[in-house]
């Protein structure tokens, strides 16, 4: 069964392992500057689901490297559901772009 783990101050090695095994990385800041979290996630080949504003609009290609969505719970749920239900090969391809 899927689960969510909340962790703080993890080592670089643990962060790399978590990012490489994640279904996706959810990035919720609104109007955030060019954040490092989406870049680290994409480097680890993990799709990113982020708010369609600020820095993520410059680093995430909607539908190719992740999803840009409105900052609502429903929009985030739909994007994550899309990743959850797509074939693993499609999700892996998204993470490679």
Largest sheet: 3 strands, parallel
Kindly, what is the distance between the CA atoms of the first and last residues, rounded to a whole number of angstroms? Answer: 28 Å
Kindly state the number of beta strands. Answer: 3
> Strand sequence of the main sheet, in spatial order?
1-2-3
Radius of gyration: 13 Å
- Count helical runs: 5
Structural class: alpha/beta
Give the amount of beta strand, in percent. Answer: 5-15%
Elements, N to C (H/E): HEHEHEHH
Low-confidence stretches: none
Instruction: Estimate the mean pLDDT confidence.
Output: 89
Helix content: 40-55%
Tell me, briefly, the overall form: globular
Mind explaining what this structure looks like?
The chain is α/β, with parallel strands linked by helices and 97 residues long. The protein has helices at residues 12-21, 36-43, 56-59, 73-85, 88-96; strands spanning 25-27, 48-51, 66-69. It has a 3-stranded parallel β-sheet, with helices on both faces. Helix 3 (56-59) links the parallel strand 2 (48-51) and strand 3. The mean pLDDT is 89.
Structure at a glance:
This protein has 5 helices and 3 strands, in the order αβαβαβαα.
Give me some keywords for this one.
3 strands, three-stranded parallel beta sheet, 97 residues, single chain, 5 helices, alpha/beta, globular
Topology:
Layout: H1 12-21, E1 25-27, H2 36-43, E2 48-51, H3 56-59, E3 66-69, H4 73-85, H5 88-96
Parallel strand pairs: 1-2, 2-3
């Amino acid at each position: 069964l899927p689960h969510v783990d909340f962790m703080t101050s993890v080592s670089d090695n643990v962060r790399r392992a978590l990012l490489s095994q994640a279904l996706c990385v959810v990035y919720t800041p609104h109007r955030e500057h060019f954040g490092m979290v989406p870049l680290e996630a994409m480097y680890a080949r993990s799709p990113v689901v982020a708010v369609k504003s600020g820095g993520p609009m410059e680093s995430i290609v909607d539908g190719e490297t992740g999803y840009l969505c409105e900052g609502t719970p429903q929009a985030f749920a739909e994007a994550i559901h899309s990743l959850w239900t797509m074939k693993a090969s499609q999700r892996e391809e998204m993470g490679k772009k």
